């Protein structure tokens, strides 16, 4: 079907338009009331189907696989789990053009089970997937050439997420990314100079933490492993350039056994190993002047 200029112009009661197999002359299908300052609130959701081109302005919102994008699919606005295009199995492959995922875009989407990111993803926003309690698998393209920025609590409280392997690309990692993922049993840490605060805090099933390149780790931040009650060992010896273990980093790791820390010099901050009753012996050399309440 070919839909010509402004065919639905000035139809303010249309809140959603679903159109498939549009011809190349589809243009100016809708507009918005210029008096509305929040223009996104007035835009019509649009599924482009297999449209091959546009004359005039493109649609400003595109829906694909139950995910709402901006017009050129570079920005993910939000998930629409009740949309007919949302996959019945909850497994979503994001469009390859996507660069940014908005704050809270998928937050508390219990229908989501799997997400595959394209190689152009550059930013996963704050709380982007927080509380997706049935999300079991995330896949990040190992061929990505961009630095991937993962914001605060991006995957926090994804309680069905069991294994995370972050491919060996460049990252900028923020606070609490996987905190509260209570089914998470193992995680592979990628390139990065420090392990972020609250990184896997409260991951009560975590038994394995591995690092792609331990030689570049210089610090373990506050509450990074706090409350990881199933973590029994942590091999500090492979982190030869580690110079700081921050406040409450391993607080409440009740199964963590004896530790040996020989890096020189190293600063161990307040209550780093507080409430770790299974540690019966701690061997530490050349502690910095800030070692306190270990």
Walk me through the structure.
The protein has one helix and 21 strands. It has one helix spanning 39-42; strands spanning 16-18, 45-47, 61-64, 67-70, 75-79, 91-93, 100-101, 114-116, 123-124, 137-139, 148-150, 163-165, 171-173, 186-189, 194-195, 208-211, 219-220, 244-245, 259-261, 267-268, 282-284.
How would you summarize this macromolecular structure in one to three sentences?
This protein is mainly beta. Helices cover 1% and strands 21% of the residues.
Structure keywords:
single chain, about 290 residues, mainly beta, 7-stranded mixed sheet, about 20% strand, elongated
Count the helices. How many?
A: 1
Residue fraction in strands: 15-25%
The general outline is elongated
- Within the largest sheet, what's the order of strands? 3-4-5-7-9-11-13
Class per helix and strand makeup: mainly beta
Indicate the radius of gyration in whole angstroms. 24 Å
Low-pLDDT runs:
20-58
Largest sheet: 7 strands, mixed
Order of helices and strands: EHEEEEEEEEEEEEEEEEEEEE
Helical fraction: under 10%
Instruction: Report mean pLDDT, rounded to a whole number.
Output: 82
The number of distinct β-strands equals: 21
Distance between the termini: 71 Å
Which helices and strands appear, and what pairs or packs with what?
Elements: E1 16-18, H1 39-42, E2 45-47, E3 61-64, E4 67-70, E5 75-79, E6 91-93, E7 100-101, E8 114-116, E9 123-124, E10 137-139, E11 148-150, E12 163-165, E13 171-173, E14 186-189, E15 194-195, E16 208-211, E17 219-220, E18 244-245, E19 259-261, E20 267-268, E21 282-284
Parallel strand pairs: 1-2, 5-7, 6-8, 7-9, 8-10, 9-11, 11-13, 12-14, 14-16, 15-17, 17-18, 18-20, 19-21
Antiparallel strand pairs: 3-4, 4-5
């Amino acid at each position: 079907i070919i839909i010509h200029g402004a065919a639905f112009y000035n139809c303010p009661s249309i809140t959603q338009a679903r159109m498939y197999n549009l011809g190349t002359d589809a243009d100016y299908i809708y507009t918005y009331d210029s008096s509305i300052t929040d223009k996104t609130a007035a835009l019509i959701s649009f599924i482009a189907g297999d449209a091959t081109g546009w004359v005039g302005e493109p649609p400003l919102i595109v829906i694909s696989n139950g995910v709402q994008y901006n017009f050129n699919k570079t920005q993910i606005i939000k998930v629409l789990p009740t949309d007919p295009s949302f996959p019945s199995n909850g497994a979503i492959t994001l469009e390859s053009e996507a660069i940014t995922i908005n704050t809270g875009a998928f937050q508390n989407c219990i229908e989501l089970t799997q997400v595959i990111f394209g190689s152009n993803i550059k930013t996963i926003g704050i709380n982007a997937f927080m509380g997706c309690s049935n999300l079991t698998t995330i896949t990040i393209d190992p061929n990505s050439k961009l630095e991937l920025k993962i914001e605060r609590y991006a995957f926090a409280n994804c309680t069905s997420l069991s294994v995370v392997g972050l491919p060996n690309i460049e990252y900028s990692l923020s606070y609490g990314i996987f905190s509260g993922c209570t089914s998470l049993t193992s995680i592979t840490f990628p390139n990065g100079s420090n392990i972020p605060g609250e990184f896997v805090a409260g991951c009560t099933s975590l038994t394995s933490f591995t690092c792609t390149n331990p030689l570049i780790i210089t610090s373990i931040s506050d509450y990074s492993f706090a409350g990881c009650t199933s973590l029994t060992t942590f091999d500090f010896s492979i982190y030869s350039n580690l110079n700081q273990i921050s406040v409450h980093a391993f607080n409440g790791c009740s199964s963590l056994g004896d530790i040996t820390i020989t890096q020189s010099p190293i600063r161990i901050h307040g209550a780093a190993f507080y409430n770790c009753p299974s540690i019966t012996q701690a061997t530490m050399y050349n502690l910095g002047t800030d070692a306190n309440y270990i």
